[in-house]
Structure of Formylmethanofuran dehydrogenase, subunit E region:
Amino acid sequence: MSDYDILFNKAKEFHGHVCPGIVLGTRLTLAGLREVGINPHEPIHNLIVFMEIDRCGTDAVQAITGCSLGHRSLKHKDFGKFAATFVNTTTGKTIRVSVHEKNRAEHDKIDRKELITVLSCIPEEEILKIEQVRLAIPREDLPGLPVGNAVCSVCGEQISDNRQIVRDGAVFCRNCAGESYYTVIPRKSA
């Protein structure tokens, strides 16, 4: 069994089914790990991956690398691109791998099963763009214990890793500072 087959099966099992995103995510991960000098068959403790999309390929990256949000080794940058940046935290080598389907219009004409086969076999240089990049990771974004904790002066919730906003000396969480992604619906009294 090839590296691709072993890792593809791992990604497929984690994701729950086969789709083009799992194929591309597996290929992207193999290229990224190779380029930063990490063996995907050994425990990985010195890697941070920045994913630019929150779709199927991210599951392949997570399954193969073991990186996760909870370990603070998987970061999501919502750019909507099928791309990931791999950072070897031991060597500092940083590589961005992106999918660039030159033949996308052709691929859209074939059925899903055939597409999965085509995407798994197409030469890497025809489907992936690999670039060495520079990336500064703030200390509060690195894996490990939280760096700096604060308590919001409005809601009383704890804010970790220096994510608080300070205005006129008062500490606010992003929600209470007006940057919330949700709206609280007041409970109806009985």
User: Anything to note?
Assistant: The chain has two domains: 3-140, 145-179. The chain has a mean pLDDT of 92. The first strand starts at residue 47 and ends at 51. The first helix runs from residue 3 to 15.
